[in-house]
Design brief:
mainly alpha; two-stranded antiparallel sheet; globular
Length: 154
C-alpha cells in the first residue's frame, strides 16, 4: 500500500507543476511520504488545489496524453486517478468508503468524452472492463479505467 500512497502523493506534485505551467508528461516524481503519509497527502493536495485556483490556469492549453487541450482536462485526469486509487485502497484494505456520486459521475463523463473503451497504444489507462448499469458510480468509473470490479466484489 505504501507504493500506492506514494503514487497518489506524486500525482499531487505532478499536477501542481501542471498548474504552474508544465505540460502533462508520463511518469511521476519521486516522493518521500515521511512519518505521516496522510498528512503528506493532505499538504500536497492543498498546495496543488491552491495552484489550480489561480486565474487563467484552467483555460491554458497544454499537452495532454491525447494531444493539445485545456489544462482543465488534466485536472479531470488527476481527479479520476485520485478517485480510482481511493477505490483501490478501499478494496485492498477491506474498507467501505463513500464517494460523492455527482463528482464521480462528472469524472466518468469526462473520461468517456475523450477516452475510448478500447485504449489506443500509449494510453496511460487499461482497456475498460464490464460493469453493470446498476453498479455504483465509483465501480463504473473504476471499470472504465480498467479495473476488474467483479474480481473485488463479494
Amino acid at each position: 500500500m505504501g507504493d500506492l500512497l506514494a503514487h497518489i502523493v506524486a500525482g499531487n506534485l505532478k499536477y501542481l507543476e501542471i498548474a504552474r505551467g508544465s505540460d502533462w508528461a508520463r511518469g511521476m516524481p519521486g516522493v518521500e511520504l515521511g512519518h505521516d503519509p496522510a498528512e503528506t497527502y493532505r499538504r500536497t493536495a492543498a498546495v496543488m488545489l491552491r495552484a489550480w485556483e489561480q486565474p487563467g490556469v484552467l483555460e491554458r492549453e497544454i499537452t495532454l496524453p491525447i494531444g493539445r487541450g485545456p489544462a482543465a482536462a488534466a485536472l479531470y485526469v488527476h481527479l479520476g486517478e485520485t478517485l480510482v486509487h481511493g477505490w483501490d485502497l478501499a478494496k485492498a484494505s477491506g474498507q467501505k468508503a463513500s464517494w460523492d456520486a455527482f463528482v464521480v459521475e462528472a469524472s466518468l463523463a469526462q473520461f468517456k468524452s475523450w477516452l475510448p473503451a478500447q485504449r489506443p497504444p500509449g494510453t496511460p489507462f487499461s482497456d475498460a472492463t464490464a460493469s453493470g448499469d446498476d453498479a455504483a458510480p465509483i465501480d463504473r468509473l473504476a471499470a472504465y479505467l480498467g479495473r476488474d470490479v467483479s474480481a473485488w466484489s463479494p
